[in-house]
# Entry
Amino acid sequence: MWILGIIGCTPKSRNDISRIIVIIAHTQPVCKTDQNAALSAHFIFKCYETYSITVHAGLLFLPPAGCAVLFLNQYRPIDAILISFGTYLSVLVSSILMYRISPFHPLAQYPGPLLNKLSKFFMAYIAGSGKQYLYIQKLHERYGDIVRIGPNEVSIRDVSAIHPLMGTNGLPKGPHAVGKYVSPNVNYLVGIPDQREHARRRKPWIRAFSPAALKGYEEITVKRIAQLVNALASKSDDPDLGKWFGYFTFDVTNDLAYGGGPEMMRDGDTDGMLHILDSGFVFSHILAQIPWLSVYVQYMPIISSTINKVKEMDKLRTIKRIKDGSLAHDVFYYLNNEDGVESSPPSLDALICDGNLVILAGADTTSSVLTNLFFCLLTNRDAYDRLQSEVDTHYPPGEDALATKYHADMPFLNAVINETLRLYPAIPNGSQRIAEKGSGGRVVGPYFLPENTSASIHFYSVHRDPRNFSPFTNSFWPDRWLIAAGEDTSRPPDSEKFVHNCAAFIPFSYGPENCVGKNLALQELRMVVCLAMQKLDMRLSEGLNPQSYEEGLLDYFVLRKQPPLPVVINRR
Ligand code: HEM
# Structure
């Protein structure tokens, strides 16, 4: 172990080296004390894991500093410090790493790559590349339905684990949220780990997305969708659909949350707002992999000043919105308990987070699905024409294509939306949960999750598993939904087995913490498609390579970064 001790020393000359060799020969007692202290620190940290910087500093610095003081009478101060800290830290790190790959680790039975078992830094690197969803899919292909993707984390591709993990009596949200929101005290509904508190905070959201409330939002969505389709129709320069859907969903969610915002469709991203959001998503997706690091990062001046600026802006918008009151019954009306259902109003802090969450949760997800939906249609002309004809049947010229009354009678429209959500779930890596410390662990389907294990169902892999959807598992084939519902006779070739497992379709997650905005999202998707197809004829721009579009899809928690999707548009 004394060899490890000199890792902390950096001898610059032969003299230094010989001096260190002499010292090492006499340092056995120092090293022994440091080794014991490091092993104890590992044990203590394992039992009482915490995000407290004070505790981290205490465990990292106090024991070796104490050992160094003990040996000051035998060595020069600098030697005592270097040897003590070098030994302590290297024994601590080695002990942690060796434990993680040892047969004594509670997750030792689950397979996975060595780098992932050792630490989550490698996963953070993968997350930064935007290809985490493909990486985890490959791991499942190689290792099976459960794979260790971190020292204390697994990813699951098994439908029987969905209900026990995320259903009623499922597990609480995992530590991703701490890293994602750069705070150990998560106050965004979507990351609240305490299930009772989550259920309490979700109540106004449920009222905000009731059928009656959705009816009230139609005025907002109708105005914005008409603006979107007019803007697209007036473009002569092959507009990028992804960019326009991004502007559109940003405007809609700002209307719903704050009664208005930066008017992206009218003015473009003049303040660089979307650029800031982009960088924020990348950054928080990386930090979500290493939650403890985010607790440190938030104190870096450049980070803290950006976070504070954004928080201050959200706070000002929220206060202004409270002061102005509601002009319409928008989402904020319910979140702020303006309907007077709750006995007390929400705290300002909760309201700031939830107002902001309307935009964070509702904008990128919907625009990602819209863009991928048109990508699928434009690269499958037959499906495009069939949908066009269904839209024309219900919404011929002169008929209001934004009226929702025919949506239930449009099986192909719904099949196209489902098939897009199956192939390109907006949140491909799923919703992280944890078997908490002290819980004794939890059985989820055929697997046992020891306590302190995080786990997610990998939506992308479950959706693209031939055991759940066959044939043409990786292709856009909306007919599978019609066949499954008994609405179409275009059966697959006899030789191929038709499999359609609805329980494996979870683009909006599952259970009491699933997407509360699902009905609004689906309604928006249907309305945009109906009006766009009634008014416009679209074709892919010459030269767009569908394969490179797919390869360019990047996931930063949301499958949100898409290569440009330029289209040629003519009015119909
Ligand atoms: C097609 C579009 C959408 C998809 C695919 C989608 C998907 C999801 C998923 C998978 C979750 C679970 C996330 C997690 O557990 O970490 C979620 C949560 C959530 N979504 Fe959506 N979403 C969409 C649109 C929307 C819209 C339009 C809104 C509202 C404006 C919204 C609001 C929320 C909220 C508030 C949560 C947190 C719910 C909770 O924790 O109880 N979503 N969404």
About this structure: The pocket of protoporphyrin IX containing FE is lined by residues 189-190, 202, 205, 253, 357-358, 361-362, 365-366, 369, 426-427, 431, 507-509, 513, 515-517, 520-521 (CB under 6 Å). The chain has a mean pLDDT of 90.
